[in-house]
Amino acid sequence: MAEMTRWAPDRVAFGGDWNPEQWPVEEWEAQVRALDQAKVNLARVGVFSWSLLQPGPDEWDFAWLDHAMALLHERRIDVVLATSTASPPPWFSRMHPESRVIDERGYRHEIGSRQNWCPSSPVFRQASLTLVRRLAERYVDHPALRMWHTNNELGCHNAECFCEHSATAFRVWLRDRYRTIARLNEAWGARFWSQSYASFDEVAPPAVSTTFSNPTHVLDWRRFCSDALLAQHVAEREVLRDVAPGIPVTTNFMIGTGNSVGRSDYFRWAASVDVVANDHYEVGWDSSEARLHEQRAWSADFTRGVAGGAPWFLMEHAPSGVNWQTVNRTRPPGELRRATMSYLARGADAACFFQLVQSTSGAEKYHSAIVPHAGTDSRAFREACALGEEVARLAEAIGSTVHADTAMLVDWESAWALQHPTMPSNGFEPFDIAKAAHRALTRAGATVDMRHPRDDLSSYRFVVVPGLYLCDDELGDRLEAMARKGARILVTCLSGIADATDRVRGGGYPGAFRRLLGVRGEAFAPLPAGRTVAAVSPEGAGLYQGRFWQEELTADAETEVLARWNDGAWAGQPALTRRSVGSGFAWYLPSIPDPDGFLALARSIRRGAEPSSAPDPFADLVATTDVEVVRRRTGGVEYVFALNHGDIDVTLPALEGRDILTGQSAASWKLRAGDVRVIRTSSS
Ligand code: GAL
After folding, report:
1. pLDDT band, residue 614 (cuts 50/70/90)
2. Which of 153, 282, 413, 628 is catalytic?
3. Is 153 known to be catalytic?
4. pLDDT reported for residue 284
5. Residue 602 is part of a domain; what is its CATH number?
6. Domain containing residue 474
7. Quick check: 508 and 533 in contact, CB under 8 A?
8. What's the angle, vertex CA 146, arms to CA 143 and CA 150, rounded to 5?
9. Do 91 and 23 reside in the same domain of the chain?
10. Which of 37, 192, 372, 643 is the most buried (most CB within 10 A)?
11. Which of 160, 236, 316, 413 is catalytic?
12. Confidence at 287, pLDDT banded by 50, 70, 90
C-alpha cells in the first residue's frame, strides 16, 4: 500500500460541485468568472460524468474535462477531481444487468436514476477501476489538481444489495470473521428458531423472510455492507496512489443528516482517507433556527470525532434549500453565513457546497446553488460573495483544532443493533439518546467530541455513554479507571447491555457498567411516545421528566440515589444515581430526560468537571440564549467563534483580542442578533 498524503491547505477551501457538463461550453467561462468573483477557490468536478468520459465500451472523451480544468486553473481555482464512478453509464448497466442493485424483496433496480451498482459486483469493480486509471494517468500532472475524490457518498442509494455476488462475498466475509461454521452458529445464537447452519454455503443475506431475521445475522450483514463499500473506495484509492502518489485522496462521508444512522461505520473508514470529508444537510422545517444549528453541531462534532480531532473537510452543504425533503426550506437572509461559519467553528478547514451553479434540468434543478437560476444579480449570489470574503480571512486559523473537554461514546455497530425490530422499544431512533445528550451538553457550554469507545479517552474530564447498547467487556473497567483519577462518567439507559455478537450480559442491566455504576436493573420498562414520568429529588424537587424509558432498578448500598420516580408502576425506584469512584463519579440515568431537565443535569455535572481555576465565562450565555461559542486552538493562540442564531443582541464576556473578520477589538463586544464574530486571543 502506498503512503498516505495528508491534505495541507494554505487557504480555507471554499467552493463545491461544479458540473460544467450540464451547460453549453460557451457558458463555462462566465460561470467560472462568477465563481471567482465569489472567492471560490476550489471546485469538485466530474462526480457524475462517467457517461460522457466513456460514451461506449471502447470510446473515451476527456477533451471537455481538459477544457473545464484549464478554465478553473486560469483563475487559480483548485480542482478536487472525482473519479466519476458514482453512476455507470446506461450502456454499461444494460450490458451488465447483474451489476445493478437487487433490493431485499428481490427486485432489480431499473436504469434511469443514479448509483445503481452492486458494491460486490466484479464487473463493476473492474470497469470502475479502468476509468479511475484512465483519469489518473491523464490528470496526474495537472496543475489544478489538488485532491482526488473517489466515487460519491458511497452507499447513499446502494448500501445493500441482495444479489448472488453479494451473497458470495458475504459468505467469504463471514468465513474470514468466524473461520468455522460452529463459531458462527455460536455467535448468532443459531440454536434459536432452528437456525443452526451446517456450512457457510447455507447462509444468505437477510432478505425479506417470514418474520424477524436473526439480529446478529442482520448486524453482521450491516458490518459486511459497510466493508463492501469501503472496499470499493480502497480499490479506487490504490489505483490513484499507484499512478499519482503524493496527491491526497478522500471521499465524502454522510455523518449526521437527519435521523438516519447511516450504513457505513465511518470510524472504520476514517483511516482510509487522507482527510475526513463530510456532507451535511439540515432536515425539516423549523421556525427556530437554533434547532438547525444543533443539527449542524451534531454532525460537525461527530465528523471531528471520526477524524480523531483533526481538521476536516466539509465537502457538501446547501447554499439554501434542497430538493429532496417534503417541503424544502429556503434559508432566510443571513443564515448562510451562520451555517457555514458553524462548521468552520467546529473544526472544518473547508466549506464546500452542493452546488455552485443551479441546474436547469434533471432531478436537482430546484436544489439551491451559489449562482441560482436568477443569476448573479441575486441575494443568494451576493451573500455567497460576502461569505467568500470572510472565509478567506480565516486562513490564519487553518490547522487549529477544536478544544473539546467532553467525550461522548458513539458507535455505528451499536446503533445498527438497536435498530432491530425486536428490541423492547422501537419508539425512538438509535442516536436519539446521544442527540438529546449532545444538545443538553452543548447548551450547558460543553464542546463535545463524539468518539469511538475504543479510542483513547484519557484527555477528557467528562465522558458520556448515551445508549451505547453494544460494547466490549473492558469498557466498564476503562471508564472506572478514568473515574478513579477524577473523571466524571455519565451512563444512560440502554448502555452496556450486549457484547459484540449482540448477546445479552447476564446478572442484570446495564451489564458492562453495573459495577462502575453500582446499580442493577431487572427489567426494562419502555414508555410509549408522549408519556412522561417525573423524577424528583429526596427533598421533593422535580429534577426532570423521564421519557421513552424506565427500568425496574435497585441501587447498591454505597450508591447515592439522587432522584426517584414520583408515580407510576416504578414509583420510588431510582431515576438518577451517582457512585463515588476514587476522585471521580459515575452517574446512571435510566431514562431520557426532557430538554430542560437534561440541560440542568448536564450543567451540574459539568460544573464539577471544570478545573475550579477556569470556570467557563460563556456557559450562562450559551444556556440561556441562542448563542453558539466554540474555540479552536493552535500554539498559544485561541480563536473564539461566537455565533448568534437568535434574534436578541447579547453582550459577551470581555476578551483580550481582535475580531479577525472585522479587525475590531474585543475588549467589550456585542454580538448582534444574527451576527458572527471570530476573536483571536491567547489560549489559557
Ligand atoms: C448529496 C449528493 C449530491 C447531491 C446532494 C443534494 O447526497 O452527494 O450529489 O445530490 O446530496 O442535496
Report:
1. low
2. 153
3. yes
4. 87
5. 3.40.50.880
6. 406-609
7. no
8. 125
9. yes
10. 643
11. 316
12. low
For residue 482, the 8-state DSSP code is H
Query: Is 153 touching ligand 1 by the criterion CB < 6 Å?
Result: yes
Q: Say if ligand 1 is within 6 A of residue 253 CB.
A: no
Using the mean position of ligand 1's atoms as its centre, give its distance from the Cα of residue 407 in Å: 30
What's the gap in Å between 354 CA and the centre of ligand 1?
7
String of DSSP letters for 83-134 = -STTS--HHHHHH-GGGS-B-TTSPBPPSSSS----TT-HHHHHHHHHHHHH
- How many whole angstroms from 552 Cα to the centroid of ligand 1? 45
Q: How many domains does the chain have?
A: 3
pLDDT tens string 378-406: 999 999 999 999 999 999 999 999 999 99
Helices (H), 451-594: 474-484, 514-517
Cell of 618: 460563556
Give yes or no: 413 in active site: no
Give the pLDDT band of residue 376 (cuts 50, 70, 90).
Answer: very high
Cα 195 to averaged position of ligand 1 atoms, centre (Å)? 41
- 35, 43 Cβ separation under 8 angstroms: yes
- Best residue among 149, 157, 279 to mutate for probing ligand 1's pocket (most ligand atoms within 8 Å of CB) is 279
Residue 1: pLDDT above 80? no
| Per-residue pLDDT tens over the stretch 226-277 | 999 999 999 999 999 999 999 999 999 999 998 889 999 999 999 999 999 9
Q: Are residues 512 and 380 in the same domain?
A: no
What pTM was estimated for this model as a whole? 0.97
Residues 409-433 pLDDT 10s? 999 999 999 999 999 999 999 999 9
Distance 575 CA to ligand 1 centre (A): 43
Angle formed at CA 302 by CA 477 and CA 299, multiple of 5 degrees: 150
152 lines ligand 1 (CB under 6 A): yes
Q: Is 279 in the pocket of ligand 1 (CB under 6 A)?
A: yes
